[in-house]
């Protein structure tokens, strides 16, 4: 095998003398023959596999498929673990560790003899975390997400992971389900390997990675247990070897045009609000100019066309078999809402990738002319004296009648404080009140957990109330629904106006006007600000201290201030 230029990995494996002997010799204890050191591309497979991250627990098998492809194309694959941040088990929230995963992935990619990397992710924070880390190193990279679970099936109906958790909780509280029925439903809801099969954040970020051009066309939606998931992984293994030869790097793929495509695709699929924070963080690593207002402006002309829970009826299997994201991208392109020239990891433009896409079910992927939700009904960015740094609301998951609403604030300093009393039959709360939950932002919780869509007070649920306006500086699961204002910035813990709201104040939400207003005059707010004392830090040492000292606000992607930007793939100094 001959190579036109010296690979980055040859600084290790091609070294003379003792250094080269050490690098090669210890690798050979795994049974590799000497020919793997001949200058062929060394491909890292960064895997977030872990049995503690159920959505990612099958990625070891996906990695085997990637390795086949790398070997086929003449590369040398080496799998390595990076942190698994599964939202289902990890406390206080996987978001608390997204930046640590990104930091770990970046340093491992840079520190090792790699020429390119395949990124294996599943649960929602692992996809942006790996993209952030890969962007900061900027070695050739391609993403392979693990795919969604099979559709949940319970008593003759499809049930969606996450989405039906909230529904079953409400049914249990309202007496419509027994605890035994809930136990039965649990096993029916999560019946295969994979991440959430609703359009939650995991499915959203898989589609966003494809729309960004970082994932092979069509690969976001194949179910985790479908053999085509492994076929596309094998193809990614072949493709990354070619990308090394082409020197095709994330910075050439994830351009401003790619981010605009991803934002519009997110609107079309009814994607999670969490995509906003993750895309802001990834853009920050690449130096791509992206603002919160871009998400509103770019999404306004885009209708929601994918009929998936929580906004619609179907699930990811249905979306996949209808043609998947390539159909949505082709429809956007034909409507003039996609930059078809944006480069992708295929080496071709995104327009060329999806030109032949066909839809097999126009009930699941609606025509642009007959959308699930009309243009302008996607995620809206709100501003006002309650959210000077911005807040967001997912209109497609909200109740239309509450999108303009004025009500009395009922304020809780923490999500836990609300949960302690939400079942109290004597709780002073009415259906037209506005529940305000603070202390759930990046620094305040810390980690900005998915706690904003708190359940309706039990006494109101039993009276037939199905939705209320809720306002929070935390996040909401992409599988959740309801009229919930999220990501209020600045957060209460740093002295954002949310800290000064009191029970009995009047709050006005006007989504059409894109405003969120606390009906309290400026002088009174100033007096409250002067009397306010910041909460004690949650941590005084360890990673928690590092997080609270350096995390940015939600409107800047909640990355660490010292991780913004790219540091490149420079070969570290050797120690031998």
Automatic annotation (TrEMBL):
Pfam families: ILV_EDD_C, ILVD_EDD_N. It comes from the Bacteria. Residues 363-558 form the Dihydroxy-acid/6-phosphogluconate dehydratase C-terminal domain. Signal peptide: none annotated. Residues 40-352 form the Dihydroxy-acid/6-phosphogluconate dehydratase N-terminal domain. GO terms for biological process: branched-chain amino acid biosynthetic process. SUPFAM superfamilies: IlvD/EDD N-terminal domain-like, LeuD/IlvD-like. It is an enzyme of class 4 (lyase). InterPro entries: Dihydro-acid_dehy_C, DiOHA_6PGluconate_deHydtase_CS, ILV_EDD_C, ILV_EDD_N, IlvD/EDD_N, Sugar_Degrad_Dehydratases. Belongs to the IlvD/Edd family. NCBIfam families: PRK06131.1, PRK13017.1. This is Dihydroxy-acid dehydratase.
């Amino acid at each position: 095998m001959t190579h036109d230029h010296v690979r980055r990995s040859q600084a290790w494996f091609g070294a003379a003398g003792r250094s080269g002997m050490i690098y090669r010799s210890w690798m050979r204890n795994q049974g590799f023959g000497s020919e793997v050191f001949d200058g062929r591309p060394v491909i890292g497979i960064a895997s977030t596999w872990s049995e503690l991250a159920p959505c990612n627990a099958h990625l070891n098998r996906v990695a085997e498929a990637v390795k086949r492809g790398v070997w086929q194309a003449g590369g040398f694959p080496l799998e390595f673990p990076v942190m698994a941040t599964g939202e289902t088990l990890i406390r206080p929230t996987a978001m608390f560790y997204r930046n640590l995963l990104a930091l770990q992935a970046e340093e491992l990619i840079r520190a090792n003899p790699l020429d390119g990397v395949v990124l294996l992710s599943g649960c929602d924070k692992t996809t942006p975390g790996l993209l952030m880390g890969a962007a900061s190193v900027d070695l050739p990279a391609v993403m392979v997400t693990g795919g969604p679970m099979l559709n949940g099936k319970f008593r003759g109906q499809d049930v969606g992971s996450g989405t039906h958790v909230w529904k079953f909780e409400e049914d249990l509280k309202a007496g419509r389900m027994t605890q035994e029925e809930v136990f039965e439903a649990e096993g029916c809801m999560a019946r295969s390997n994979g991440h959430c099969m609703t359009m939650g954040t995991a499915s959203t970020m898989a589609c966003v990675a494809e729309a960004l051009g970082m994932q092979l066309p069509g690969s976001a939606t194949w179910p985790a247990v479908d053999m085509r998931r492994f076929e596309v992984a094998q193809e990614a293994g072949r493709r990354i070897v070619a990308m090394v030869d082409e020197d095709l790097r994330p910075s050439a793929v994830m351009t401003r045009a790619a981010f605009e495509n991803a934002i519009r695709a997110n609107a079309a699929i009814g994607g999670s609000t969490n995509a906003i924070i993750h895309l802001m963080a990834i853009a920050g690593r690449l130096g791509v100019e992206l603002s919160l207002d871009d998400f509103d402006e770019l999404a306004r002309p885009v209708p929601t066309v994918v009929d998936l829970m929580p906004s619609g009826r179907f699930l990811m299997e249905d979306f996949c078999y209808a043609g998947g994201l390539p159909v949505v991208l082709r429809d956007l392109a034909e409507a003039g809402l996609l930059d078809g020239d944006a480069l992708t990891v295929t080496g071709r433009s995104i327009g060329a990738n999806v030109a032949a896409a066909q839809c097999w079910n126009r009930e699941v992927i609606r025509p642009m002319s007959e959308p699930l939700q009309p243009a302008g009904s996607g995620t809206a960015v709100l501003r006002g004296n309650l959210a000077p740094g911005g807040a967001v609301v997912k209109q497609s998951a909200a109740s239309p009648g509450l999108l303009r609403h004025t009500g009395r604030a009922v304020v809780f300093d923490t999500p836990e404080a609300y949960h302690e009393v939400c079942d109290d039959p004597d709780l002073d709360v009415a259906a037209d009140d506005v529940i305000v939950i603070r202390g759930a932002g990046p620094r305040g919780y810390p980690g900005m957990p998915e706690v904003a869509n708190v359940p309706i007070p039990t006494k109101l649920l039993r009276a037939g109330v199905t939705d209320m306006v809720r306002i929070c500086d935390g996040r909401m699961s992409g599988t959740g629904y309801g009229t919930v204002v999220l990501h209020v910035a600045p957060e209460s813990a740093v002295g954002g106006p949310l800290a000064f709201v009191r029970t009995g104040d009047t709050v006005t939400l006007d989504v059409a006007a894109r405003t969120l207003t606390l009906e309290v005059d400026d002088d009174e707010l100033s007096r409250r600000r002067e009397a306010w004392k910041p909460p004690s830090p949650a941590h005084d040492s360890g990673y928690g201290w590092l997080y609270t000292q350096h995390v940015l606000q939600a409107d800047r992607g909640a990355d660490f201030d010292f991780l913004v930007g790219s540091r490149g793939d420079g070969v570290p100094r050797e120690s031998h």
